[in-house]
Amino acid sequence: MLLYIVKRILIFIPTLFLISILAFVISVNSPADPVEQLTRAASMEGGVEDKNSAENSIKNEIRKKLGLDLPLFYMSLASWADCDTLHLIPEKKSRENLSRLVKKYGNWQNVQNYNHQLIQFHNLVKTTEYTTEQLEISTDLSFLVLNLQQINQHESINQNFVEINNKIQIINNSSLQIAFQEVKKSYEYLVNHSGGIQRFLPKLKINGLQNQYHLWLFGDIGLDEKRGKNGVLMGDFGNSYSDNQPIIQKIGSKFFYSFILVMLSIFISYLVSIPLGIYAAYKKDQKFDRISSVLVFMLYSLPGYFVGTILLYWFANPDNFVWFPIGGVKDASIYQENWSVFQKISHQAPYFVLPLITYTYSSFAFISRMIRGSMVEVLQQDYIRTARAKGLSEKRVILVHALRNSLLPIITMIADIFPAALGGSVILETIFSIPGLGLEIYTAVISTDIPMIVAVFTLTGLLTVVGYLVSDILYAIVDPRITIK
Amino acid sequence: MNEFNFKKYAWSKFKQNKPALWSFRILIAIILIALFSPFIANEQPLYVNWEGNKLYPAFNTLTTKSKTDSIWLNNSKKWEVIYYDRIDWRSVSADFKLFAPIAYSAEFNDTYNRDFIAPWDNQRYKNDKGEITSVPWYLKHWLGTDKIGRDVAAGLVHGAKISMFIGLISIVLAGSIGLLLGTVAGFFGDNTIKISRIQKVMIWIFVVLGYFFSFETSGYIITETFESGNNTLGFIYFFTAIIFWIFIVFLGYKIGSILHFIPYLNHKKFLKVDSLISRIIELLNSLPTLILIITVAAIMNERSLTVLILIIGLTSWTGIARFMRAEMMRIRNLEYIQTAKVMGFGYRKILWKHAFPNAVPPVFVSLAFGVAGAVLVESGLSFLGIGVPDEMVTWGSLLSLGRQEFEASWLVIFPGLAIFTTITIFNLIGEGLRDALDPRLKKNNE
User: DSSP letter string over B396-409?
Assistant: First the structure.
């Protein structure tokens, strides 16, 4: 038994590892630049006076904290043509662009040369003095050069060159002309001298503990340079892009209502569906069974958001009935924190009726079908016939002898229902505007708040895995035959 | 002699199940509607006779890229240039116009019927004399309009196309992965395939090498194709890269067998295929699928149907694989397979000729349920506005419009019923297939 539990837990670890890797890959591959997003969030929070220098220092601080100056993973696979210090380039866009150029032409030296020329040219454009009529053209020029650092398609680069050339012709400055020719020359050199065989030779590089994933997962533990981060394992998911608050605090405050709703709905659906399933199995192929089967089947096929919207349309609509509030969990104008528990519950109860109905009905259909199936199977067993032959009352046979064994599949369902309810809560909490985790995911998705999405993904993954673990262990306790296999 | 034919038997069994049979008929109808949607809901008429010119605008706009056409009007004695994307056929004074059953397409904004016109409301249009009057029956918005005057019935037709496309294609993807892995896991188990030490090592090395060659060195081509907006070509490149990867791994396996002359390297052990695949299934099962889909959809730069199909397909194959695995394990131990082995048939022949055809039919049951699940996920995502592109009209997006405007009950009820019907028919077909194809399951379930 103990061996079985230990085995299950050992299987559970790689799953968690996979979830963490997936979450990390998602957060790295997201289109948003974390430094830009967090800087914006930070500057929105406190009014920054001296814009440029303050922003730069904040940016550096954020980069340091996120570990963006470190390589991505414990090891990296690259070709010999690739550059292994590319992650040191601060701007995400130009970094990605350079790496694309290296992949394309397979020669880091030339790419570096081109980039160097480009930066020099950009500085020159910025520092040259212009007459007032040239000023407008020079801002255009500066913009074009900046854009050049973010594109890698041959055609668009050439087009950009032509436009820059036109602008320089108008400005008529010889030093700009020369610098631009240098840029052009280095680009042509890059295109014409693409790297040879070395771009097809793989190079495995071990980065050790000094990497972003390690920092993300474990925080400062094992790192040479302390960055004041606790790591995901300790619940540090970083700060939200939208308001710069720590993610874990935001989730903590949102978790309550989601948890209450999911738990209540699971409880109610079990409460209703177990008797229903048993009775339907007892009256198998009779009228009650057939009608309830059809009804349950229909309910099972009804999407939750449809039912939720219909309920709102019918019962929370001034045109029909205003029995229940349209959304939310409390009326902020009446609700007071110092109310007694009873008062709070009686105030909030109407807000929960429609969401609970919507949450409950589909799992209710699922469970009652399952219970009916397993009950029917149990009722055909020999020991039930024996119990009947002994002259036990039908009530006792069903409720004592048969029920116990027919409840077995319920345990496995616990694991399935919990993540499904959490996932479903995204849609339902949006419909009923319940300030829970689901609504939080929705707003995070709409505002591309990547750390929030990643945190929710990781946490639900963890919960799901724990759910499976618990149900496996429970099952093994109830049905010891499992452990032998 | 009356030969027993399983297909005929299953079909006759399926036909006895009236709800399933009717669902199947409705499904065919929905698929036909989806396929012929340009001729069912279109603001371009099917046929116009305009002063001696016979025009087929619905066909023309479908087949040709050019959006203009010029015709000679006999009576008015002048050339008329038709801009198909701008012309309002309702106010054209042609001799004869045959409109589609729903005289609007899903994206068409009817400026005269904006702001949630109900099916029973007075709907207006500009007729060929330039007056704004009530619409004749053939120009009615049968199921009303939304805020910007888009026809709900046309939206339902378009939504059917998208739901069917996503549901069926993603299940084809999930089904092929699931069938392949489930078959391999169930048929070979943990103690059939033998592999030598060097082959094992080589496979691992070449998995990494294959990744390097197909994604590290030339992966930028795939990214670039996707960035240029050509998704189809991008996916073709992507799958080519994966096939190339598999090929390289196979190459590694072959190279490994060359080195077999060294006894130490040739030491053979069982390859635990079943354990490996079961572990992968277990891993994927413990991921929160819906949250994963939402997450991936959220970080995508651009929303597209292909991405949605790919996510749904890649996350929903586990059930099919599990089912197939169990089925194969059962069949593997049946006497006729044992006999075939004893008679000296090769594994390949036993697998494809004797085991696989018997294992496949019950899997159709989970395929049918899988489509229902995929449709549910798709409509849920588009209800939230996450899955499909914003401008695309789907059942879910129509329903979410209805949620914002409670007056417009037709925007809630009709799309909701469409989703409900589709899911119900797939579930009923699944039940019918279960009864017809797998009598054992039926017995267990009742």
Answer: HHHHHHHHH-TT-H
Alpha helix positions (H), B259-355:
273-285, 289-299, 305-315, 318-332, 335-342, 347-349
pLDDT above 90: residue B157: yes
Sheet harboring B96-98: ordered strands across? B53-55, B47-50, B96-98
CB contact under 8 A, A15 and B282: yes
C-beta contacts of A315-318 below 8 A and 24+ residues apart: A315/A354, A316/A354, A317/B406
Q: pLDDT-based confidence at B366, cuts 50/70/90?
A: confident
- Concatenated DSSP letters of A247-316: HHHHHHHHHHHHHHHHHHHHHHHHHHHHHHHHHHHHTTTSHHHHHHHHHHHHHHHS-HHHHHHHHHHHHB
* Token output for B270: 């069982």
Q: Nearest C-alpha of chain A: how many angstroms from B207?
A: 12
* Three-state secondary structure readout of B218-232: CHHHHHHHHHCCCHH
> What is the band of B446 on the pLDDT scale with cuts at 50, 70, 90?
very low
Q: Which residues of A touch B287 (CB under 8 A)?
A: 18-19, 22, 461, 464
Residues 212-271 of B with CB under 8 A from A: 212-213, 216-217, 219-220, 223-224
Interface predicted TM-score (ipTM) of this complex, two decimals? 0.82
Give the CA dihedral A185, A187, A191, A196, nearest 10 degrees: 100
Global confidence as pTM? 0.83
Q: Is the pLDDT assigned to residue B11 strictly greater than 90?
A: no
Tokens 């798709």 correspond to B378
Asked if B291's CB is within 8 angstroms of A456's CB, the reply is yes
The one-letter amino acid code at B115 reads: D
| Residues in chain B within 8 Å Cβ distance of A446 | 385
CA of A168, closest CA in chain B: separation in Å?
30
A173-218 residue pLDDT tens: 888 888 888 888 888 888 888 777 777 888 888 888 888 888 888 8
Amino acid B31: pLDDT = 94
Most A CBs within 10 A among B17, B275, B295, B314, hence the mutation to make, goes to B295
Structure token pair of residue B287: 């991921």
Cβ within 8 Å of residue A192, ≥6 positions away = none
Closest CA to B424 of A307, A289, A294: A294
- Distance, in Å, from the CA atom of A295 to the CA atom of A288, rounded to the nearest integer, reads 11
CA distance A68 to A90: 8
CB contact at 8 A, B381 and A423: no
Tell me what the mean pLDDT of segment B303-316 comes to. Answer: 84
Report the first-to-last Cα separation within chain B, whole angstroms. 35
Chain A residue numbers touching B406 (CB-CB < 8 A):
312-313, 317, 319
Beta bridge partners of B78: B73
- Partner-chain residue, chosen from B212, B301, B384, that has the shortest CB–CB distance to A442: B384
pLDDT of residue B244: 93
Which residues sit opposite B71 in a β-bridge? B80
* Secondary element (H or E) of residue B176: helix B152-188
